[in-house]
Specification:
- The chain is α/β, with parallel strands linked by helices.
- The protein contains 7 helices and 9 strands; from the N terminus they run αααβαβαββαβαββββ.
- Helix 2 crosses helix 3, helix 4 crosses helix 5 and helix 6 crosses helix 7.
- The chain starts with 6 loop residues before the first helix and ends in a 15-residue tail after the last strand.
């Protein structure tokens, strides 16, 4: 029986489609671990506890915080940490894991007080502390200082912080006020992180960051990072550092961008 003349063409066409599908599914081009991958324990073990806490802090965030906080410690950059907006404590627990002896973590959150941003299931300070100890059983509770209230009422005195995470009010006015407050208390070689940058549901955050950077030329973007499973990005800001007139942070804006995912 004579084969239809279109069969060789169809076979060739199917081979081409198969090759394309194989190329599109290359493991190095996907955003997920392949089945054979063995993720390292430094972050995965920590995140195993963090992910049991309600919130939106992702595995990628945990990796990014790990790199920054560990690098600071390795370079001898010590000091306290500050977080504005902890919710149930996912990011807080991650930060607490990298506290060095004699360092403290100051946490400011409205908790059950009314806020412009509507949140369900608001935690109490005691609930936050329990979550921190669940993830970090060896944590010295005296190293964590919880401030109940809005960041606009936060009094920090002469305190300086090596790492600051901002996830407070999402209006432009609130976010910009938090940026100015935190910039005034950022230690030399410190890193300031703003959550929800370019989140379409919170446009005021992006506007606040852009206004802040336009008016504070001594700050540059260290990293602008996407996060799997999240809409907005986290943007990492540092002060310019110069030695003998040479700006060592001149290329920071291009080190880690949303197009170059960590």
């Amino acid at each position: 029986m004579k084969r239809p003349h279109w069969r060789p063409w169809l076979r060739q066409r199917l081979r081409r489609l198969f090759r394309r599908s194989q190329h599109a599914a290359r493991p190095q081009d996907t955003i997920n671990f392949v089945a054979e991958a063995k993720p390292g324990p430094l972050v995965t073990d920590l995140f195993a506890g963090v992910k049991t806490i309600p919130g939106w802090f992702t595995y990628d965030d945990c990796v990014h915080f790990h790199l920054v906080l560990n690098m600071q410690s390795f370079l001898g950059v010590g000091g306290d940490m500050l977080e504005i907006g902890s919710y149930h404590g996912r990011s807080t627990a991650c930060m607490a894991a990298y506290l060095q002896p004699e360092e403290r973590l100051v946490v400011c959150d409205a908790f059950t007080q009314p806020t412009e941003d509507a949140y369900h299931d608001k935690p109490s300070p005691e609930h936050l502390q329990r979550n921190l100890l669940f993830v970090n059983p060896q944590l010295d509770e005296a190293q964590v200082e919880v401030r109940v209230g809005l960041s606009r009422d936060l009094q920090l005195g002469e305190a300086q912080f090596r790492f600051i995470h901002i996830d407070g009010g999402h209006s432009q006015e609130e976010a910009l006020a938090d940026l100015h407050l935190c910039a005034a208390h950022l230690a030399p070689q410190g890193v300031m992180v703003m959550d929800d940058y370019e989140n379409k549901y919170w446009p005021g955050v992006s506007a606040a960051v852009d206004v802040f950077l336009a008016g504070n030329r001594d700050f540059v973007i260290l990293a602008d990072l996407n996060r799997h499973g999240a809409i907005g990005r986290k943007i990492y800001l540092v002060r310019k550092v110069s030695v003998r007139g040479i700006d060592l942070t001149a290329g920071c804006a291009g080190i880690l961008t949303s197009e170059n995912r960590l």
